[in-house]
## 1
Amino acid sequence: MMMRYSKEELMPVVAKLAARFTGNESTSISYEKAKQLMGAVIYCIEEYEKAGAGSEGLVAVDAALHTDTVYRRGYEILIGKVAEIRRNYNLMMKGFSHYDNRCCYDTFQKGLPVFFLYYDPLFDPMNHILTLDYPVLVTFEAQCGADLMESYVNCAYLEQKFLQRLPEEYIHYVLNAYSDDYGELIINLASIALRNVLGCRIAGKTIDLNGYTHEEMTRLEHFINGNTREDLEEHLKKYVDELMDFAYEGNKELGNYLKEDMRNFSFELKHALNYHCLNTVLAVEIS
């Protein structure tokens, strides 16, 4: 996002923030701290600008507003965003399951509360504190602070909505088929479950705790072999849409999120078939 304020316009706001940081007891701070406070001011101004960009009914960025006013309004928006993240997190945790995966447990049940305890929207809003070890299906390279946490918690919430519609014993079954020590791995649980659901769809197999029959394996192999990698990806995305319509009330947000994994999944299916190791991708042990 392009900032429309010069450093000269920002400095009085940074100076006020620095005075708050020192409790008006000092007129000097380190270069590193001054840089941090400048970042804090810019972060809040960008929150304000993002809220108004191209959206009628939201905050409209008024070029006549004083820089300090824009900063304060952006800060208020940021406080509201943190409150919304907390609400979504609390809703997610009502039915949350980590399926005996340590990374998932540590990230969401132990780690996320630390963010709400120690996040500093006033002096260090860029710092989201946590390493966020659990891997979701999208990356947030351009985001930090509450913006990143908002996206991350939303992804996790979507994954929980997806997993909660599947039998828990099925999820444990496919996770164990993936690796008997899955509980200690840093893996995306929703991805493994979804891939197996789609594998069943391709093979014409019911979603159960049984391995694939010879007939089902043949269907699966012919389907993979009969499509290019690109066509395979498109078919998989279509099957995700079908799944959303069938079991998730047409949840497009969830479907679009899950489809982020289909490119990688199509590559892995092709690779696994070529090297005769489909069991590394799907729970295909022949029954």
## 2
Amino acid sequence: MVPGERITAWRPAVTGVVEVFHARFTEHAYPMHVHDAWTLLIVDDGAVRYDLDRHQHGTPGDTVSLLPPHVPHNGSPATPGGFRKRVLYLDSTLLDETLIGPAVDSPDLVDPVLRRRIGRLHGSLTHVGDELEAESRLALVAERLRTHLRPRLTAADEPPAPGVAHALRDLLDERLLDGITLDEAAGLVHAHPAHLVRAFSAAFGIAPHQYVTSRRVDRARRLLLAGRPAGEVAREAGFYDQSHLTRHFKRLIGVPPGRYAGRGRRG
């Protein structure tokens, strides 16, 4: 690998995401190739030039590129310093093959809202234990992609249903410690995952993953003040591990768990 170039790749525990791929390339050029998954690409620095279906395209920083499966494409730096990109490879459970044609015709989407959502989705995919957040963000990203590719068949304008939102809250409360996937919850309340996220957020002013995290942090506070060590508290409050607890606890409370418990004992 050329000095300065680097890649990171992993398979998250999130249904629909085949691979997450982050890369910084200064000289590397991809030859013509195909994938068996959808390629959802954002460029954070520089630009990429690529050919898809014998047409040339480019990806400046404000563009979202969606390359369909089974269609050959290549890729090379379009700027002197190369490029830095983040890619999600998505399976057909999120975007079916009927959308391949529209994606070939218009693979580059100028949509600031979609671009921000994809960036935040990448952030949530980097942390083990934040799968519900990643699933919620992924559902909204996939819905917006379908809106671009097949706008008349999307459910984006379906009004949120308060009954669905309350049913989801009951499920989240019931499974607070063990957790529940968005797909499982959607099946139990008979609603599309994206609609479920929007309905919950509209009804309660908070996303489902934020609700779960805040409930778990509250439980952790009580356990910490009772003198329990942070390592035990993390597991008993529903967090993946102590670092998972610490990250969310500090973000919500302003101090890490150890300092919080120490102040409480002094008080």
## 3
Amino acid sequence: MSAELAFNRSADVDYGVAKEIAPDVRRIVANNPSPYTFLGTNTYIVGSGDVAVIDPGPADAAHLTAIAEATRGERITHICITHSHRDHCDGALPLQERLGGEIVAFGPTGTTRGAGTPGLGDAFIDSAFTPDLPVADGDTVKGRGFSLDVLHMPGHAPDHLCFALVGKRIVFTGDHVMGWNTTVIAPPEGNMGDFLTSLDKLAQRHDRMFLPGHGGHVETPRRVVRAYITHRKWREQNILACIDDGVSTIPRIVAKLYGAIDADLKGAAALSVLAHLEHLIARDVVTAEGATDKFSAFYVRAASDAVSSSS
């Protein structure tokens, strides 16, 4: 099983400049680079005359001014949010106050939000984010000259949406599928089972292009989705191999599988392993002894071994 993913990590970006990347689709990149946001958050302007803004990004004055300049003489009718992580949604209210538009998002999920590592914790998530117009899977956001089908794709976040531009075979994928890196799945915010189910759903489509929340566009959508699925299956098999070898705590699994990973990303790696373990436990493939927490001594063993030891 191959786990190779062909990433595009080109660093060519002009912050604050609106660039047309498809007919009636412009992109502006926010100047908020980080290990989790890559070069910055992509904001998309869809349509002409009456337009939708997808993911206005952080509450950054320069970025909001760039959106205002790019839409001068036009009317923003909708501000669509893929998910309520602050690098995507914090600019929504300031943009609305400045230029108008109805804020569209999934809305509160009623689930526990956040993840216990720097850069992914509560400060990174607006768990109280509430849109003007809550939407669900199968809904359509319509404006003069554009229609966006709503696809609920939980996994990275429970409220994650993708927006499919009707008639163009283009999907704005937020953080669900990106071309520069794999998507972080960090419990309890992230759920591996939901993520894989969402990928399977996306794999059934016949899209021409993905426009993600970070990094460049994806020109081979189905191939990339299949590669994402293969990568996660490969990672799961590696984790099971660790368990079979007696490497059965999350810190030791991370050390074996990720090697000399950047210290800033070790917490995310531990949460990714935890997400895989939760998915394995839910399917009765492994059992856990002790707290299911990345900070605990989280011992796991094959479920068949657990049955044998208790008989």
